[in-house]
Amino acid sequence: MTRIVSIVLGVLAFGLFMRLWVGAGSYPDMRSLEQKIDQQNTANDEQAEIKRRLQMDVAGLSKDDEAVEEHARSELGMVRQGETFYQVILRTDQQVAAPGAEVKASPHVE
């Protein structure tokens, strides 16, 4: 009788120890989840920094008309009335400006 109880307890203990090493909730599974948590925390920190910069940008735009004008000029390519917009394309940028189109460069700039 004690031998059967010992065998049953041994099998039960073996099953419980196997669960620690294999399957859901095991040590390797917990390490994997901790790595995923660390990756998500890193991504959250990056997004929080982006959010902080955007909030500062919005605060600056709401207080200052010059900041609005600067954004309009840099991001939208807007110019004031009476100004002339010039776009300079360097020889190294010609393939980027018009992929697939041949650009003939003149020796002088007009």
UniProtKB/TrEMBL annotation:
It is a single-pass type II membrane protein. Its main location: membrane. Pfam families: DivIC (PF04977). The keyword 4Fe-4S does not apply. Residues 1-4 are cytoplasmic. It is found in: Cell inner membrane. Keywords: Cell cycle, Cell division, Cell inner membrane, Cell membrane, Membrane, Transmembrane, Transmembrane helix. Residues 23-110 are periplasmic. Essential cell division protein. May link together the upstream cell division proteins, which are predominantly cytoplasmic, with the downstream cell division proteins, which are predominantly periplasmic. Belongs to the FtsB family. Part of a complex composed of FtsB, FtsL and FtsQ. PANTHER family: CELL DIVISION PROTEIN FTSB. This is Cell division protein FtsB. It comes from Thiothrix lacustris.
